[in-house]
Every structure is written in structure tokens, then in C-alpha cells.
Design goal:
Layout lengths: L1 H54 L6 H21 L8 H9 L8 H14 L7 H19 L6 H17 L2 H10 L11 H18 L21 H30 L5 H22 L11 H9 L6 H20 L7 H19 L3 H16 L3 H11 L5 H15 L20
Helix pairs in contact: 1-4, 1-5, 1-6, 1-8, 2-4, 2-10, 4-5, 5-6, 6-7, 6-8, 7-8, 7-15, 9-12, 9-14, 9-16, 10-12, 11-13, 12-13, 13-14, 14-15, 14-16, 15-16
């Protein structure tokens, strides 16, 4: 009997020691990934803001508006020619690397950093999120190689870097943790890395908040006061159905632009230069039509914040021009192969779509704009759960239900259409053949 008790106690303490060792690895991995990615995101944001401020005055005349994007995307194309994985929005590259267990080279970080600065700060249209995620995964890959963790697979470390990047950029650690696990699967979540992702996202958020307490996207104060009513629910259901219909068109336009540029058999830096020149034309048209009040160049975060604040005042014709102009400019920039993300442009499009619907039916335009901003991206990227958490972290708890309804219904209707075609289908046999 005493031997049995001794063996039981020995097994118990051994299991306890293993769990303790695993917990230590999780905390250490999260701290290193979160801190390093958080610092990278801080440096990336500072660089984007500084260089954008330097070039902004040049976009007041047609010549420089055409020249700067052409030159910037040409120079970015030269870097991409040397490091091809630095092309496009980057998210597809990291999804493929994670799901197919392919190594992510550290050279991706400087190449993507410089190419994105050249693209976005010199007039190209896109977001910072895709490039940031790709740069973060190169850090995750390097950390996994150095630490050689025994209890955390390399895949989980890299995924946690994705979460850290997203959590730091949006000052939303919970949404960041979920995003890293949700973006990999089509209509599913990879639960196993969630705890590792939470640690890294929290550390990255803390570092980002410490150096930059003010988020990049300024939220109108009215959104913080919204209280949901049961009478609003049917409208959100209708909006979700609307997004499910518009979503495939949005994705299809981007895919078509990519194929169009891919069929131009010239060096990629000439392709990106063409994309830059055409983007410049769109920028100048929107600038002229809106009397310089709105722009579709760069990340357009200030224009998005202004559109949300002026949701009821902005003329519908101006709203449509800015909405379509941003979509076309982004498709020309990223579709040509230049380095820029799709998250912010998709948020931009979703916000405009929500405001447009609200203006047509007489609903609160700011509320529906904010709901469309997150719900539309949640649907087309199939990350409705992450966007639901982001709604709470950015706005307030009353937006949990609207964004969840819109995102989940839109994602369901979109079915196997995704902004990121590299995602894994959890159960391919269940795919309906119509």
C-alpha cells in the first residue's frame, strides 16, 4: 500500500513539474515574442507616420501626385524583385508558411518594412496590417529557432507572433489572440495555440500602449455611448445578408486586378510602377472631387475617422466616390504586387457601406458605419469572432451583438469565398457542390 502511495505521489509531482515547465515556457515565449513584436510595431508606426508627413504636402498638384506613387512603387518593386515573398499584402504568404510548415526567412522583415514604407508613404493605397503580420512571423520563426521550446511547437510560436502584431496594432489584446487562431481556418478556429497567443498579444499590447497610448484609428466619442435595442436586431440581420452579397464582389474585383497584373509579363518593378501611376490618377480624382477633404492614398486612417465623424453630413455622392476610389486604389497598388495590406482598406469599405445603408433607411449612420467596418472584414476574411471581440475593445459591449450578427451571417453566406485564399478548409468533404 505504501509503495502505491509513493508511486502515486511521484507521478503527481512529476506531472506537476511538467505542467510548471510548460507554463514557464509559455510565459517566456509570450514575453519574448510580445515584447519584440510590440517594439517592431512601434517602430513601424513611427516610420509610417514620419515619412507620410514628409510626403503629404507634395500631393497638392497633379504632377507630384502621379510621380510619387509611380516612383515609390517602382522602388518597392525593386526590393520585391530581390525578395519575392515581400510582395502583396503578405497575409497569404504567412498562412501558407504556417499551414505547410515552411520556414519564414528573417530577410522578410527588413524587405517588407522598407517596401511597405516606400509603397504607403509615397502614395500607394493599402494597410499596414498585412505587412506587419508578415514581419512579426519572421520574428516568431527566429525566436522558435533560438529557444528550441520543448512543449510549444514552432507553429504555435509563429501564430502567437501574428496575434501579437494584431493586438499591438489595434490596442486589442483579446481580439489579437483570437485573430491569430481564426484567420488560418475557413469558418473555424485553431484552438490549441490560443493560450500562447494570449500571452504574446498581451505583452505586445502593453509595449505598444506604453510607447503609443493613443491608437492609430481615432474612434468618434458617439460610438462609446451607443446602447443596443432589440428593435435594431432585424436591421443587423439584413445588413449581414447585404454583406454576404457584396462580399464576393469585393473579393472578385481584387482577384481580377491581381490576375490582370499577373498577365502583364514584365519585371515586377515595372508592374508596380504602372500600378503606382494608375493609383496616382485615382488619388488625384478623389482629391479634386472632394476639394481635398478626403484622400485614398496610404492607410487613409484620418479619412476613415473623418467619414465616421461626419457620417450624416457627408454627401452620398462623395461617400460613393471615396468608397469606390479607395477600393480601386488599393486594388491597383496591392494587385500590382506592391507591399500593402488589405485589412484597413476593407475596414474602410465596410464603414462606407454601413453609412450608405444607414443614410438610405434613416438609421444611426455612425453606429452602422462602425458595425459595417468590423462586420464586413469579419465576413470576407472569415474572422467574425475576432472582430466581435475587437468591437468590444474598440467601442463598447453594445457592439458585441451587432458585429457578431453581421459578421457571422456575412461569413455564412460568403461560404468558401475568402479574402485570403490560402486558408485551410477544416472539413473539405462538407463543402457543398452546387
Amino acid at each position: 500500500m505504501s509503495n502505491f502511495i509513493k508511486k502515486t505521489l511521484a507521478d503527481y509531482f512529476k506531472e506537476l513539474a511538467n505542467l510548471g515547465y510548460e507554463a514557464v515556457e509559455w510565459v517566456i515565449s509570450g514575453a519574448i515574442i510580445g515584447t519584440s513584436v510590440g517594439l517592431l510595431m512601434v517602430a513601424f508606426r513611427i516610420a509610417l507616420i514620419k515619412f507620410s508627413d514628409m510626403t503629404a504636402p507634395a500631393f497638392n498638384n497633379l504632377f507630384s501626385t502621379l510621380l510619387l506613387p509611380t516612383l515609390g512603387l517602382f522602388l518597392a518593386g525593386i526590393i520585391i524583385h530581390k525578395v519575392p515573398i515581400a510582395s502583396g499584402h503578405g497575409t497569404n504568404h504567412i498562412i501558407r508558411a504556417i499551414l505547410r510548415n515552411k520556414p519564414i526567412k528573417i530577410v522578410t522583415l527588413p524587405a517588407k518594412f522598407i517596401a511597405t514604407i516606400l509603397t504607403l508613404c509615397m502614395g500607394g493605397s493599402g494597410g499596414r496590417e498585412g505587412p506587419a503580420l508578415q514581419m512579426a512571423t519572421s520574428i516568431g520563426e527566429k525566436v522558435s529557432q533560438i529557444l528550441k521550446l520543448k512543449t510549444i511547437p514552432r507553429e504555435y510560436v509563429v501564430i502567437s507572433a501574428v496575434s501579437a502584431s494584431f493586438g499591438a496594432m489595434f490596442h486589442a489584446p483579446i481580439a489579437g489572440a483570437v485573430f491569430g487562431c481564426e484567420v488560418l481556418l475557413l469558418r473555424g478556429i485553431k484552438y490549441a495555440p490560443l493560450l500562447t497567443c494570449m500571452f504574446s498579444s498581451l505583452f505586445a499590447f502593453f509595449i505598444s500602449w506604453l510607447f503609443q497610448p493613443r491608437p492609430l484609428l481615432v474612434i468618434p466619442a458617439q460610438l462609446l455611448k451607443y446602447q443596443i435595442s432589440a428593435t435594431h436586431v432585424p436591421l443587423f440581420v439584413v445588413f449581414g445578408l447585404m454583406i454576404g452579397i457584396v462580399g464576393p464582389l469585393y473579393i472578385g474585383v481584387f482577384r481580377g486586378m491581381q490576375k490582370l497584373f499577373d498577365n502583364i509579363k514584365i519585371k515586377i518593378y515595372f508592374r508596380t510602377a504602372i500600378g503606382g501611376f494608375l493609383t496616382g490618377l485615382v488619388i488625384w480624382f478623389v482629391h479634386s472631387y472632394t476639394n481635398g477633404n478626403y484622400t485614398v492614398r496610404g492607410m487613409s486612417t484620418m479619412s476613415l475617422a473623418l467619414i465616421l465623424r461626419q457620417a450624416w453630413q457627408i454627401p452620398i455622392s462623395v461617400l460613393l466616390i471615396v468608397m469606390i476610389g479607395k477600393m480601386i486604389a488599393t486594388n491597383l497598388t496591392v494587385g500590382s504586387g506592391a507591399s500593402g495590406g488589405l485589412v484597413m482598406p476593407t475596414l474602410f469599405f465596410g464603414a462606407c457601406l454601413g453609412i450608405l445603408l444607414a443614410r438610405l433607411i434613416g438609421f444611426n449612420a455612425i453606429v452602422l458605419g462602425a458595425t459595417g467596418m468590423l462586420g464586413f472584414f469579419g465576413a470576407v476574411a472569415h474572422v467574425p469572432v475576432a472582430m466581435t471581440f475587437l468591437a468590444v475593445e474598440l467601442f463598447n459591449a453594445s457592439f458585441l451583438l451587432p458585429v457578431a450578427i453581421v459578421g457571422l451571417i456575412g461569413s455564412w453566406i460568403l461560404s468558401y469565398h475568402s479574402l485570403y485564399p490560402a486558408v485551410e478548409i477544416p472539413n473539405p468533404e462538407a463543402k457543398l457542390k452546387i
